[in-house]
Amino acid sequence: MLLTENKYTNVSGTFPNALMIDASGAGLTDGSEFAALPLNDGWEPFSQAVMSYASGVQLQNSPTGGVGVPNGVADAVGVSQMLEAIQKSIGNGPGNMAWWGNELDPSVTGDRILLLAEQGVLIAVYPGLDAANYVGDGNNMAVAAAGGKFYRSSDAGGVTPNIAGPYIQLPAQPEPTFTKTYIGATSGADFDVSVIGATLLTVNSAFGIVEQTSDGSWWWTFSISVTNTAADPIFDVAMSGIAAKNTHAQWIGVTDQNVASQTIVAGIEKNGGNIRITSSGAGPTTVLVFGKIILESKPTWADDFEFKLGIRY
Fold first, then answer.
1. By the 8 A CB rule, do 265 and 227 touch?
2. How far apart are CA 20 and CA 135, in angstroms?
3. Mean pLDDT, rounded, of the chain
4. Could you count the other beta carbons within 10 Å of the beta carbon of residue 212?
5. Distance CA 81, CA 185 (A)
6. DSSP-H helix ranges across the chain
7. Sign of the C-alpha dihedral, residues 240, 243, 244, 248?
8. Hey, which of 57, 149, 272, 284 would disulfide with 171, CB 3.0 to 4.6 Å?
């Protein structure tokens, strides 16, 4: 593409701040020229390139119409082949999904996206979305009966499927599936592991996975290995940022890798992250504690895996 200032004799500034200028008076020709060069190195090649790209070929001369093929009718509001070509080229037309990372609602930012909430929306308000995603008259009842979406209904809740209904039903947000393995240590890792009540205890390894279920609950699956050199019979292993569910007791799996004859049990405090380890005899030496517990909330150090999915209209 040529520089704007090289396409015109009369222009103000240079790229990227080149501006067109008006003639200084009636009948004068010192304003920016309306000439073939700026058009041929600007809008016309761009428009043809977009149409050609949308059609899936490098060069398109067919006048038969279709996506990316000029139909011989001038573009207008509501019937713009150029707009359709741009949407199809980059996959951002009505009906396409989009991850939404803004804290504000799309209606506030002005983006043409509806966040999925298993809602019914008015077809008259979102005709493009309906045209792109409607399952069709022949499938409407079957899709609704099978628990599917994108069918038409008489009501916003989707209770009564109706091909002539004013609503189209949208899906719910997908269930969270993103997880990560977090590493724990005495310091300098994702979460801290500390010791209470033991005179000499070493953290050998600690790791776990944070998950959120579709009802909003948070779970913590973990495994921690410690060496109790002083053989204390009772001590706590504390995990930072963890708040176990406060409504009921949760027991933790525990084993002493070196002393098999004694009884050893472990449980985690409610609304906290301290695991109490108790042995029946001399203190356990190399201890592995593990479990999967429900939490009060997301751990303070965990990543936020909430990705909101929306649909373009």
1. no
2. 49
3. 87
4. 20
5. 59
6. 4-7, 36-40, 43-55, 81-90, 106-109, 127-133, 140-145
7. positive
8. 149
3-class secondary-structure state, position 272: coil
Cβ neighbourhood burial of 10 (10 Å; 0-12, 13-18, 19+): middle
CB 269 within 8 A of CB 289: no
**Are the beta carbons of 226 and 186 closer than 8 angstroms?**
no
- What whole-number distance in Å separates Cα of residue 167 and Cα of residue 178? 32
What single-letter amino acid sits at 26?
A
| pLDDT tens per residue, range 193-210 | 988 876 777 889 999 999
- Cα separation, 65 vs 67, whole angstroms: 7
Residue of 202, 201, 185 whose CA lies nearest to 193: 185
- To the nearest 10°, report the CA torsion of 129, 131, 137, 142: -30
Neighbours of 97 (CB within 10 A): 14
User: What band does 35 get if pLDDT is binned at 50, 70 and 90?
Assistant: confident
Interhelix angle 81-90/43-55, rounded to 10 degrees, is 60
Query: What tens digit of pLDDT does each residue of 233-291 get?
Result: 888 899 999 999 998 788 899 888 766 556 788 889 999 999 998 887 766 678 899 99
| Residue 146 to residues 129, 141, 160, Cα–Cα distance (Å) | 21, 9, 13
**Total-model pTM:** 0.57
Which whole-number Å values give the CA distances from 215 to 144, 212, 245, in the listed order? 23, 8, 15
Residues near 295 by beta carbon (within 8 Å), at least 6 away in sequence: 217, 218, 219, 220, 242, 243, 244, 245
Residue 14's nearest CA partner among 25, 24, 28, 4 is: 4
How far lies 81's CA from each of 105, 112, 303, in Å?
A: 30, 19, 43
